[in-house]
Amino acid sequence: MLPHVRSVVADLDPVLRRLADEIAGYELALDDLPVAPKVSPTEIRERLSTYDFADPIPLDQLIGDVAGLLRQWSLHVNHPRYFGLFNPTVRRAGVVADAIAALYNPQLAAWPHAPIANEIERHVLGWFMRALGLDPAAGFANFTSGGQEANQTAVTAALTSAFPEFAERGVRALDGEPVLYVSAEAHHSFVKIAHQSGIGRDAVRHIDVDRRLRLDVDVLAREIAADRARGRLPFLIVGTAGTTAAGAIDPLSELADVARQERLWFHVDAAWGGAAVLSPALRRHLAGIERADSITCDAHKWLSVPVAAGMFFTRHREPILQAFRVEASSYVPPAVPDTYDPYVTTVQWSRRFIGLKLFMTLAELGEQGMVGLIEHQAAMGELLRARLASSGWLLVNDSPLAIVCFTHPAIEDGRTTASEVVGRVVGGGRAWISEVRLSGPITALRACITSHRTQPSDIDILVEELERAIRAR
Ligand SMILES: *Cc1c(COP(=O)(O)O)cnc(C)c1O
User: What's the whole-number mean pLDDT along residues 273-285?
Assistant: First the structure.
């Protein structure tokens, strides 16, 4: 080793050692940490007030300080007994990838600024497109900050495709109010997106669901007809493949049929559930997704990579090229043939290297390894369902994916409430679940398997904690 290299390594050594200690220590301690912190904002703010930035702090010490704060005062979504809201247990490959992305800090906005980073993203998105049944050579895909940005991309593309005047003159140019259709159980990002896009929150039609919490296609057809009769301008149907609350999968093929008959854009929001297309055993539950005009899927949900890593896919290039076009050649370097510059094809401008964590996680595990993690989580969901049913709990959803919504006779007859039971389980620190309100209306408990580390013994502990919470009334 050259002397100057040796001295840089010596400088770095305490930092890397501290970081390695932290990674290993966290992974080893995780199973025994309380899942949820007990802390008030005041306590945190008082502690932070000691950082007045007056004197410099060595980096190795700072790593220990900050990691200690995160360990003490976080809801540990990596915990095998965090049965929560689609936040996965991350793998080391994703952690390392985020650090390498920060180290090289490639600016993906224009291809010539980040040739390899842009091509790595294209490569991994192409692989996922084929799994979704889309042709990468004809369609288009990009990484996003998350499902919301991917859904926003879909709405922008659908508006641009349906109304050629929309690009220059916006909704003012239309001779009616545009409306879009989602199920009553769809993700609420569409409400924010409608506001931001200028069509207004009212433009979102929340279609009733059937008893399995799936969008009711007959109601949809009637609503579209009624809207047309009133002079409204339907432009988009959204099917959800794995609702956030209960994992319901809308009837995608039937929705694709309606969209074709009505000449509407068909978007599938598979932010969490989309990962199921990778599994030969689970894929059939998403049949019809290959007919979508566009699809949302988050790598940061079921694919075990850290936030933020969403993905947007479409079979149509032209609306994308129209929707995000801008002329900035006065300062951006010229485009390279046969490439796309993300600043003219996506919502973002400056762009982080989001895709590396999916690329490295997938490359390290191999496709079969990734499928194994997905199927393991689905199997733990099945186990939880069976364990709850055999212990006298009542299942209220029937998703083929790993979300279980349930209640108990003692809740049903008013001896205790769902929120009291959740409070006791979460307060115990051994597991984290949440309360959920579903169309019906039904109030229930919700437990989702989001960790590839969750084992049958963790399911046992959750059921134990639930039984304790019910007896404690
Ligand atoms: C999580 C989720 C979203 C939002 O995705 P973010 O990554 O949080 O922006 C959208 N739709 C569904 C169905 C989701 O579960």
Answer: 98
